[in-house]
Give the backbone structure.
Amino acid sequence: MREKSSVDYTTKPQRPSSNNIAILSRFIPFVFKYKGQLSLGLLSLALAAISVLGVGLGLRNLVDQAFSHESSSALNQAILFLLISVVVMAVASFGRTYFISWLGEKVMSDIREKIHDHLLKLDVGYFETVRPGEIISRLTVDTTLIQILIGNSVALAIRNLLLFIGGVAMMLTMSMRLSALSLLIIPLVILPLLAFGKRVKAASRITQDAVADLSGYLEESLMSIRTCHAFQRETQDLNLFKAASTRAFLRSNQYLLNRSWLTFLVMTFVFIGVSGLLWIGGQDVLKGNLSAGQLTSFLFYALTAAGSIASFSEIYADIQRASGAAERLVEILETSPKIQSPHTPRALPNQPRGTIALHNVCFSYPGHPGKDVLRDVTLSIAPGEKVALVGPSGSGKSTILSLLLRFYDATAGSIYVDGVDIKETSLSVLRSRFGIVPQDPMIFSGTLYENIVYARPSASETEVWNALEAAHLMDVIQGLPQGLHTQLGVKGVRLSGGQKQRLALARVFLRDAPILLLDEATSSLDAQSEALIQESLKTLMMKKTTLVVAHRLATVLKSDKIIVLNQGCVDAVGTHAELIAEDGLYRKLAMLQFMDSLNIPDNSKVQKALWA
Ligand SMILES: Nc1ncnc2c1ncn2[C@@H]1O[C@H](COP(=O)(O)OP(=O)(O)OP(=O)(O)O)[C@@H](O)[C@H]1O
Ligand SMILES: [Mg+2]
């Protein structure tokens, strides 16, 4: 009875379902947007149902007029009527399948777009509280469940309701006595089948789980193929896979057995039911109370009505599944972004100056609200200044850069860029003032060219080549099979760590924003490449404000100012010479790195510092 479109409805994804059916009404406007397709779909649906009922009448005419009276013209007429009914049914079924499925697919793609659009507006913190896999499955699996409902189940429910009402009405016109009897027999046939059907469904779910286990295991084992080879785990892995595979087979065997039993039971029960009706109806025919044609079409309608009731439990399950999906989708749509541009944003100065100021900034990440990552940080950076941010790992350096870009809002205190509180200005204008090389640069699957122009899609080809040259990527490009248009693979797997970093640098060269944020931007480079890139950066930084995060102090010696951060607090601010003169954290860090160059006579002191 069930129909299929682009989705195999027999293996519906398992997701928590819900009884909150009202939530589905949130998606009604999506359907009503396409009134033309909806009307055509419903019209074809009604026509298809009516023509199915017409087939029953055709059967009656065939038996009563043609066969009983042995009239060939009546036979022709009856066949013609049947033929017309069947043609109408076929055309209407085409219309129903096409328009309703079209509606399902279109609404699904609209919902996906709307949710994706909303996701892009949400703040960075949101994505730290929800697993990416969960969001992906909402966008794919949950929208598919809504699509199944709109493109299949609802239409099926309407069709089956029409068939049931029409079928019962026709049965009543044929024979009241048989109709009353059928109302007793039909539930007797259907109820046990429904009960057994549930068992088959449960077995099918267990089979799906076993296959999911298997693919989960396979994914992990293939991803860790190097570790497997290095530790010679092939035999053990083979045995583990064999066991999981056998488990999956045994479960599907159980499912197949149950399903075969169901087929057996359906055939037996339906045959017994039909035979019972035939026997009782046959006696009526013999007595002359009923014509043979009436009995034939009665049976046809009884089977149609029974079939339509049987599918209701399945349709109800679809509705519950879709309600669960709708709840999860609405939850995303109702999450409002915590970081937004104000309604009336204050403009940043037209001519960017590049000043940055932090006033008593405190911050803790939304994922760990109790842990203070920045405490009372106050600092100011003048236009064109080259400032270094140093400090132990975890002291909050990258966090300061994230706050400048307003990925998060400070828990207390304020941040100013060009004299404007960043909360008062437009997010996109604020972000356009920065060029950043993050600590873990993201490379997208696509070509090298696409990855670089990501920073400024409007850039000309010459500008791209200049950026490539400045980031010393020319030799890398020459080594790639398709040069600039080589696909870099997922997360840029075809590049080395240092090459990825140079690509990230090429992006900021191309972006040419007034404030540069470099977070460990040259940490993966060899000494020679680093020296060359420092030269290019010098030119780029000429008229820009620059904030450089660095562990290797040698790269920041010449900064105008060094800010030392320790456990989220500003420990000291000064030039290299000033900070070395103080007996503070910077001196300790510097001692460890420049033992020789500082020429400290007491080597034991250095040793002590090293092991401190
Ligand atoms: N997204 C996050 N959610 C929760 N805590 C975080 C998050 N990112 C960083 N932290 C915590 O905030 C603190 C500061 O992290 P941050 O990345 O700013 O350090 P860092 O100074 O840049 O260190 P490193 O030199 O190792 O890069 C750390 O204790 C870290 O555990
Ligand atoms: Mg960092």
Q: What stands out?
A: The pocket of magnesium ion (ligand 2) is lined by residues 397-398, 439, 519 (CB under 6 Å). The longest helix spans residues 234-287. The beta strands are 356-363, 374-381, 386-390, 412-417, 420-421, 434-437, 515-519, 545-549, 561-566, 569-574.
